[in-house]
Specification:
Blueprint (H helix, E strand, L loop, with lengths): L2 E2 L5 E3 L2 E6 L2 E5 L6 H10 L11 E7 L3 H9 L11 E6 L2 E6 L8 E7 L1 H16 L11 H6 L37 H10 L3 E8 L8 E2 L6 E5 L2 E12 L4 E9 L8 E6 L2 E8 L15 H8 L1
């Protein structure tokens, strides 16, 4: 879901977990939303309590995620649907398991309640269960998420971008006719009617290998050039071992957003050629069959 400002800019893109009829969690990207939510509740006259929960999340992602999770939670965990959740108690720990993630791989997120007390215990539980599967500890796999066209808050999407610019102005994501009102509704209605002047695209980028991950929140963003004219920026980029080429996400003028358009990108190694391509970069037409978690479990047993 999107949280938007009065001008339609994106404040955050959290996952909303509904734990009860009137009990919700916002699982956030990197930014501060707590005070914004409190201000929204107060000025909307809502009778709600907003606080930061004592919860710690950990992700189990990858082709063997289903098999590993079955070892910990039982085979029933494989029935949790995408963007659904289920609550469990294991070894006295209360956890919420959701079928979500940031890698475009098969995967789960595990939220442990009373994290200040049970966080280490849960980590050890998952780590021991993962030994037979050669589990590794890593941070977010940005190569996978860039290949899948998954946007990162802080570089691809920010307060200065709106959902229509980043290609996520679908009616199920941004309903400008919904009731009740929401912050940014009128601004986004105007954007939908008038259109955008720039758009997020996928690029294949020439030159030397860019490495595992470059983005505008960590380094100075790569400038996109039309001839010698700066016209946009690459917000995330990497070398994809799967595709054996450099790929990236970039914000460019609408006039340069058509598939096949050639531009240039100023990288640290110099100016290189680039071409607008479909995204996601891997399986852009969604023709590749989805893997079954249960077939993964069988293959691993």
């Amino acid at each position: 879901m999107f949280l938007t400002a009065e001008d339609g800019g994106i404040i955050n893109d959290p996952v909303l977990l509904r734990l009860g009829e009137n009990h919700f969690w916002l699982s956030l990207a990197d930014s501060d939303v707590l005070l914004w939510a409190r201000g929204l509740a107060m000025n909307s006259g809502l009778d709600v309590t907003i606080r930061e929960a004592d919860v710690g999340p950990v992700q189990v992602q990858g082709p063997l995620a289903g098999a590993l999770m079955s070892e910990v939670f039982g085979a029933g965990v494989l029935d949790v649907g995408y963007y659904w959740l289920r609550e469990y108690e294991i070894d006295g720990m209360h956890v919420v398991v959701s079928r979500t993630g940031y890698t475009a791989e098969l995967g789960f997120e595990i939220y442990v309640r009373n994290a200040s007390r049970d966080g280490q215990q849960l980590w050890n539980k998952i780590w021991e269960a993962g030994r037979p599967f050669d589990l590794k500890v890593v941070g977010p796999c940005h190569i996978r998420r860039i290949e899948a066209g998954i946007l990162s808050y802080g570089c691809d999407i920010t307060l200065d971008t709106n959902p229509f610019e980043v290609g996520m102005g679908y009616d199920w994501m941004v309903d400008v006719d919904q009731e009740p009102d929401f912050i940014g509704k009128e601004a986004l209605r105007r954007v939908k009617q008038e259109g955008v002047s720039r758009r997020m695209v996928g690029l294949e980028i020439g030159g030397d290998r860019l490495g595992t991950f470059n983005d505008g929140s960590m380094i100075e963003a790569f400038t996109v050039l039309d001839g010698e004219m700066p016209v946009g920026e690459v917000t995330s980029a990497c070398f994809s071992p799967r595709l054996e080429r450099n790929i990236g996400l970039a914000m460019v003028p609408v006039s340069l957003s058509e598939i096949g358009t050639d531009v240039q990108v100023a990288t640290p190694a110099g100016i290189v050629s680039a071409t607008v391509v479909p995204k996601p970069f891997v399986d852009p037409t969604k023709e590749r069959p989805k893997q079954s978690m249960r077939s993964d479990e069988a293959a691993a047993s």
